[in-house]
Amino acid sequence: MKTSNLTSSTPDGSGQPPPDTSHASSPCGGLAVTTTAEGLPIGLRIARSQLAVSLDVVAARIVALCALARGSSAHQRRLRLQETGTPAEVLDALGLPDRRALLQLEEDADRWCAATVRR
Question: Is residue 23 within a helix (H) or strand (E), and if so which, with residue range?
């Protein structure tokens, strides 16, 4: 599962997501989402290959990618706060995921990539 900056066209034409957004895409390339830092989708790319998949499955995949994008954004926030000396106990209390938790989100989102369910 990839989490990165948006590389397709954006409203301002820069190719980069607005500040405080995150991006996640499936490793098989069928779906990509851009979300707010809270995980609310603000952009979506669906490949033709996903049109042959059950809508329920596509929806579940989108939700998993939104969770991954949110987790990635929160993990980056955790790293920034760690650099300023914020104790791990505080970061945990804020619910900011550590690397292990982020890897689990990536694994959860990766599980479905090879699965195909016909309508």
Answer: strand 21-25
Along the chain (119 residues), what's the average pLDDT of each consecutive run of 10 residues?
A: 41 59 87 93 92 88 92 94 95 94 87 54
119 vs 110: CA distance, rounded Å: 21
Q: Output the CA angle 12-73-107, nearest 5 degrees.
A: 120
Domains and CATH numbers, the chain: 2-110 (3.30.1310)
Nearest CA to 46 out of 67, 27, 32 is that of 32
pTM as predicted = 0.76
- Orientation of helix 55-83 relative to helix 99-110, angle to 10°: 170
